[in-house]
Amino acid sequence: MLGPQRWRIALALLGLLLTSGVGLAFPLMIGQQIGQVLEQGDYGQLNSFALGLVGLFVVMAAGGFVQSYALGSIGERVVYDLRTQLYGRLTTLSLDFFGRHRTGELVSRLSSDVTLVRTLVTTSATTLLGQTIGLVGALAIVLAMNTSLTLFLLGMLPVVVGLALVMGKQLEKLSAGVQDELARATVTAEEGISGIRVVKSFAREGYEYQRFAADLASNLRSALRMTALRAGFGSGMMLIGFGSLAAVLWFAGRQVIDGSMTLPLLTSFLIYGIQIATSCFGIAQVYGEAQQAFGAMGRVFELIDEQPTVVEARHPVELPAIRGGISFRGVSFAYAGQAADAEGEAPAVLREIELSIAPGEIVALVGASGAGKSTLMNLIPRFYDPTSGQVKIDGYDIRDVSEQSLRSQIGLVPQETMLFGGTVRENIRYGRLDASDTEIEAAARAANAHEFIVGLPQGYDTVVGERGARLSGGERQRVAIARAILKNPRILLLDEATSALDNQSEQLVQQALDRLMRGRTTVMIAHRLSTIRAANRIVVMEQGRVAELGTHEELMALGGRYAALYALQFRAEAVA
Ligand code: ADP
């Protein structure tokens, strides 16, 4: 990810060299020149010496600016790339991934983990490079000036490296833990906020608060442990650094006493000593930060490296405009990660499904909850791949065709319609992004939605609240139907809302659905008798199998499960 930033990196390095170079050179200059200047007692010379120093510091500051700005912009760009790449990857992952991960956790990685990586690129990298150059340079200069003293200083090196290695490993581990716990707290908060109605209806505000506080408290404990470790490491390095300062003073002081060194030289030695000390401290801090960022980076790249389970064929066929025949050939399916049963077999949600649906046919799926209706429907747009068997559309195995050409011909009206936080118009346009306003309105009319939309405060330009909070269930459904009408797919998948709509609303929705279904192959999960009656055939599902298949009359005559279900569930409705 740093590759595209190489010019900025070069610029930053240039700035860094300038700053560090001046930082290293000026004590030497002081040591060599201040003695002469003072001995001559000339104010003019002192003035120009001081001015020269200021000039040097101006160069240093300019270098500092270039370096900070270049590194800062690298950091921001890397964060941008990382976030967009991560989000891009997330959206391409298959549905099973989202079944395994919770929203809050993913959001946490997208925000807080990425932010930690930025610290690594910007501040940490600058400090690390600058301080390392400072440290090595100062040591080299001191070495050239006084070998025995430097060798004595270098004796401390193994201690420093050993300390850093041990602490670093600990920090990386702790950091990953801290970020994990933060993600857990984010999940709790996200669920509490999005489920606020449930929270309030059970008066569980306090409970949710406690849950969040508890999650965050364990995060706090780990963060404190990490802080303690970093503080210990930092002050250890500080001790070593300033210890070296004392060593310089002691060594050089003896040489001043016995006359082999001058006081100005001692001054520059001292400045180098301070430089060595602060460099040690700086490097230690950065090292800690970097280890922390590595923990976070691991979490980010883990997601970027995640592979979708539903993969496009290597040479996908473009599905031509379809007629809409669907067939299931020996389709079995199990969700990944479901606990195996006693025989060690993954529980099959669908077993050996054989089903052919003709173009234009309307098929209703009925059966008890958990029978596998949604799962069967989810196989058609290839949200999941069957464990064995084939799903074919117009004779094409859907695994061989491009996802885009498949899904662009399938419309889905889910039970719970997700409206995005834009205007009503934008929400309908989601069905086809290049639709004109006239087409949108026509779709809304066909979906029986136009009437209520023009009654909204700003008509089509009314912004819907998060999750469409300002629209009723029936209204949201009709927006979803308008979306599907606009998309004009050959195959329609309907998941009928279970929640009872009021009579008038139901009629409007039903009418809209009838218009939508006209001339399209429709597979629907049906709960209401009226919709089931509209179907050409009814598939009764039971424990992942097709238990019965036929028209309403045929199944009633059969006197089996459908007849029983009918007696139990629909008679009252029919009588009413
Ligand atoms: P229906 O739509 O008929 O109510 P589903 O197809 O939703 O049934 O579910 C069939 C079975 O698969 C159920 O036992 C359910 O628990 C299980 N199931 C559904 N979705 C998942 C999932 N994402 N991961 C694991 N199991 C699932």
Give me the secondary-structure topology.
Elements: H1 6-40, H2 43-92, H3 95-100, H4 103-145, H5 147-154, H6 157-194, H7 196-201, H8 205-257, H9 263-304, E1 326-333, E2 350-357, E3 362-367, H10 373-379, E4 388-393, E5 396-397, H11 403-407, E6 410-413, H12 424-429, H13 437-446, H14 450-454, H15 473-487, E7 491-495, H16 503-517, E8 521-525, H17 529-534, E9 537-542, E10 545-550, H18 552-558, H19 561-575
Parallel strand pairs: 3-8, 3-9, 6-7, 7-8
Antiparallel strand pairs: 1-2, 1-4, 4-5, 9-10
Helix pairs in contact: 1-2, 1-4, 1-9, 2-4, 2-9, 4-5, 4-6, 4-9, 6-8, 6-9, 8-9, 13-15, 15-16, 18-19
Bound molecules: adenosine-5'-diphosphate.
Can you describe what's shown?
Helices cover 65% and strands 10% of the residues. By secondary structure, it is α/β, with parallel strands linked by helices. The strands form two sheets. It has a six-stranded mixed β-sheet, sandwiched between helices. Strands 2-1-4-5 form a four-stranded antiparallel β-sheet, with helices on one face. Helix 6 packs parallel to helix 9. It is elongated, with a radius of gyration of 35 Å. It starts with 5 loop residues before the first helix and ends with a helix. The chain binds adenosine-5'-diphosphate. Residues 99, 335, 338, 349, 367, 369-375 line the site of adenosine-5'-diphosphate (ADP).
